[in-house]
Amino acid sequence: MLTKFETKSARVKGLSFHPKRPWVLASLHNGVIQLWDYRMCTLIDKFDEHDGPVRGIDFHKQQPLFVSGGDDYKIKVWNYKLRRCLFTLLGHLDYIRTTFFHHEYPWILSASDDQTIRIWNWQSRTCVCVLTGHNHYVMCAQFHPAEDLVVSASLDQTVRVWDISGLRKKNLSPGSVETDVRGISGVDLFGASDAVVKHVLEGHDRGVNWAAFHPTMPLIVSGADDRQVKIWRMNESKAWELDTCRGHYNNVSCAVFHPRQELILSNSEDKSIRVWDMSKRTGVQTFRRDHDRFWVLGAHPNLNLFAAGHDSGMIVFKLERERPAYAVHGNMLYYVKDRFLRQLDFNSSKDTAVMQLRSGSKFPVFSMSYNPAENAVLLCTRATNLENSTYDLYSIPKESDSQNPDAPEGKRSSGLTAVWVARNRFAVLDRMHSLLIKNLKNEIVKKVQVPSCEEIFYAGTGSLLLRDADGVTLFDVQQKRSLATVKIAKVKYVVWSSDTSHVALLAKHAIMICNRKLESLCNIHENIRVKSGAWEESGVFIYTTSNHIKYALTSGDHGIIRTLDLPIYVTRVRGNSVYCLDRECRPRVLTIDPTEYRFKLALVNRKYDEVLHMVRNAKLVGQSIIAYLQKKGYPEVALHFVKDEKTRFSLALECGNIEVALEAAKALDERSCWERLGEAALLQGHHQVVEMCYQRTKNFDKLTFLYLITGNLAKLRKMMKIAEIRKDMSGHYQAALYLGDVSERVRILKNCGQKSLAYLTAATHGLDEEAEALKETFDPEKDTVPEVDPNAQLLQPSPPINPLDTNWPLLTVSKGFFEGAIAAKDGFMDAQEGLGEEGGIKEEGGGWEVEEDLDLPPELDIPAGAGGGAEDGFFVPPTKGMSPAQMWCNNSQLPVDHILAGSFETAMRLLHDQVGVVSFIPYKALFMQTMSRGRTCYLGLPSLPCLRGHPQRNWKDCGAKQGLPAVGLRLSDLIARLQQCYQLTTSGRFEEAVERFRVILLSVPLLVVDNKQEIAEAQQLITICREYIVGLTMETERKKLPKETLDQQKRLCEVNICVVVIHTSVSFLKLIFLCVCFPYRWLFLISYHRVKSVPTIQTRKILSACEKTLTDAHQLNYDPHNPFDLCAASFVPLYRGRPVEKCPLSGACYCPTYKGQICRVTQVGRDSGPPCTTPVNLKSSS
Amino acid sequence: MSIPPTCMAAQQGDVDELFDVKNAYYIGSYQQCINEAQKVKPSAPEKETERDMFLYRAYIAQRKYAVVLDDIKGNSPPELQAVKMLAEYLSSDSKRDAIVADLDQKMARSVDASNTTFLLMAASIYYHEMNTDAALRTLHQGESLECMAMTIQVLLSLDRVDLARKELKKMQEQDEDATLTQLATAWVNIAVGGEKLQDAYYIFQEMSDKYSSTLLLLNGQAACYMAQNKWEEAEGVLQEALDKDSSHPETLINLIVLTQHMGKAPEVTNRYLSQLKDAHRAHPFLKDYLAKENEFDRLVMQYAPIATA
Predict the structure, then answer these.
(1) Would you state the pLDDT for residue B267?
(2) How many CB pairs below 8 Å do chains A and B form together?
(3) Which residues form the COPA/B TPR domain (chain A) (predicted)?
């Protein structure tokens, strides 16, 4: 039993689940009704109007209503939205025990200690029926979920089933208005005729406290003070007792059927809740409390949830975990559903059952660990008593029929948890909480001493995460030591990122993200239960709580992506898709909007181009993003989102963007804005903006001073004028002082009546006339002419050398990405290009200081050092073994195998014998290349010469002695290379082309092919190469031939014909030219015939010209009617039936005069080699 | 990393404080080995020597011989002197004969078999000299895991897989989970071939998962793949190795093999070969290659007279 939620309160007498929302109503003994959200674990509301205990409580299925009944004889109907009681139904004459809504009709059913059951219409607010017959308190009465039946339980020791179809007909038949009006009076008139007792179930020998219908079957369960739970069956005519569940040792207060499983739940004053198996009638589980008697049970109509009320509160619980056991590897999800292990391919969404699990455990699979290397799973099963937990090791069958999958024999052992620690090892936490390492045969390999631990989790190869009471420890199984510990209470699940660089530790209400070294990166607290999680490709952790899909960045940022109706278990996240399993174990895919976390991730990773892209293209607006950006110190990014000028202004100031701020300030045009802008601009030395700000705010003093320090005398003088106009004496004087304008100062002083000061100023500055004039105005009686200080100095500002008209120079700071991006949209391209060039890696000098290769023949070995002799007595160095290369030579007669083995000598002999090669020089490159692909390298101990691997083509089944090297030369590759040669030919690079054709031709004997068809293809390849080589050489020859004499011209012509005949791709036009020069009609005809080209107008003209010449002017060595081969050396046609020498490799023909010479085509073979069937090697020929 | 004090005490007995240093060295993560060695604070002077030994050997593996030659002084412990000997041997071609002669003399006298480092270094030199007999004889005196591992390597180079397996069994009896045992298992598995190739691959793969992928591990994986004719997979692994170090000789050699098997144009292969010739003239592969070229030329001459006759 898993407790999901607990409350503490007065005794709980009634309970009701809301059918849709995560709510439960609890009616208390003290008269209060509580409305709880069991998911958020909060009290939503309290309804306190009943006087004394409230025992009946029920939510309406559709409407925002609930009904309650109490010891104050009142039935109250409440609206939880309006949060008040709508009305009260009065009529019962004693305590009310239960109240229930009908699932369809507007009825309320109430049971009371006044020995009656009443049915009320809550729309008309009247009692429509009174069911009498019980002769003691009626403890419980409930409607049947589908039929017109009522079941009631009473302290008169009976359970009664009532038929209320009469009432339905009367009240809800078409003419029901009438009867409604009659209302309660009908009851008086007809007594209980609307509702008749159908069955009276007798069997309990004490009062019955509770009776309930089965949701689908014709069954009733009842609980009574005789401490028994009875199951009754009924049909149309009768009802009988099926069985009794004994076990409670005090009054049974309530008993209900499990809505979906074959179980009965009952609770009792003996402080226990018991779960019974319906078919076996045996107790399955017992849940006890220490001090609280249980009073009531409630089952959720749709979910696997129950609630039980007791003396000091209530509990919401479920009987078993609903989390499916699953494991993800690559694109595959493995999960357990209904005793099957299923496999889901995320890409193709193909879902197959791969294996049937061994039955035997009544508990569902708790967790799974999958081993991709061995295709094996460990399935752990938790028993109620942890010590009885077991695990099964299965090897998943390779092939399976999804309809009827195999049930392979697994290996079962006891142990709390089993997880893979390596390809062929797994760790088991046994019931003594010690750690065992086992192999694939389920044998203990070793025992590992571990610090105290209650659970183990996967942590990559060779490591485990151990959970103890208050933390998680990373433990290296190989070194048997703890590597790191992090404090987090009660971790339930562990989710590694695919590259195992990060791990998310999920506890009930907390998530911690750590790196590989288990250093905590961030800690997130959740109010709601954390359910599951998976890492997204870009390193964002997507997790679910009971009602949300959320994300967490490793930096600690987290937020909600979307809400959920029901809990899901995330298996994988790709792009917009969240793959998950629901509680019914169905794989589902939900779509999410990843913009927000991608945006934040891009910000954190400083991928500003991405950020900018999202800013421009995604719908990312809203105060939260702006606030987030501001908080995280990205005001310049936030600037992009903001339309509101005021926010824009302050953001711009924050990131020091004066231009944007100025714009915003202009739009706002508020004094405070200008002031703030002025300050900011002044700090940046942006004095033009400062000037504008001062002008806008009419801050003349500051403006004057600004002009002074920037040396702007013209404007300073203007300011003086303005001050004069404004009659601002002090400002005026100050400006005059700044300007060094003495006469102005004198004038000001005079005008404001400061005569003596004016005099002094004039006198001191040597304005004698002025001084004299002033002196005269002095009244000698009253005024004294002030003494002029002889030491007085002229107070004159130094003239500005160069007025400052540009802004204060700023340090060149690289523009922030966003400013740059605003300035030039493709600004960030350069940066990216720059990145691309970082690939250059320094050459390492020195080279490997290695003296000798490993595989030099033994005779070259330096004899053992003198020191070796002394130990000979007890250590004899082994002789050299046979290398795979040697075996290749022994096993094969194919030249290529010998070359790969590095045995050139034998290879040459074979080539010589098989295809008559005598001149190996053209083969050198091929030999060297082939030899170099024969062996791979791998490093053994550092600083030692490397070891060599020997790839073999029959590695799967060759054993130790039968190896043959992997050839690495494929017919298809050679054919592909032909294309290159063709291109060279068409572009006229004949010599190069010949070279390449020859390489291909020479490569053919080094092929190993699989079947006859490939032999044919290879031979065809030889033919093609040969003909091209002959043709191209001929063409090259032709160009070299002189044309002077007739004989030579004849020869040339012959060659030309052959060119045409052999190799039709030679330019057609060239031929036409020749035809014109040597007007041989037949020549043209033949060429025309062979080329099979569509005659153009031009060719027709030539043809007609040829026709006119009528006869062949000269005799040529050419017989158009006889099939012929061409001598590859002299380019003379060799007609059929004449003696011919053939090259065994290329099949090129020669005049007998060339016998014994090197084949012109291959340049390796002799044209008199021994007879040979084919130069191509069939695999089986080995 | 914080280690709870309780388990520290419990584990003191069998925890190797130099584990990270050694492990990094063996899997070919030399810089990490150096970093770890500089970080770790040994509890005893002999541990300090051991740490230095690995530190200097890591420098040797990086071919930074000068560091070793300069750092190890005449008064350093004998273990380090041995390391210095190897550095001297590898650093210059000219002194090699003298060093080997000197080593032969030392070996002729009685050798302190407890100085495993000396044995290892001596065996390394003999192995470089292709004097496998002397190498094996030297290693025979040591009993450490590394001696056994080196024995296995020498035996494999002699194509004595049978003996290598016997030696491996001894290693497994001593410590099956040790990094060296695992690596040696992989080498032997590659030599055995067949189904064992996959096991070998997993060993390399697990190590790179667990620690970090290194050129040594990647080339091991590539060798397994290529032995199984899985050329495409091998390409991915070798590309990763090439990204780590574009002139690593073994990677280049493997690429020479791979490109041909994948049917790439001969130019691609030749490019890798030229790269190898450019940077690692003294590599055994090239020496062998040149020897084979000469052999070829010699053999051609044998056929030539027949052709003209």
Answers:
(1) 86
(2) 349
(3) 610-767
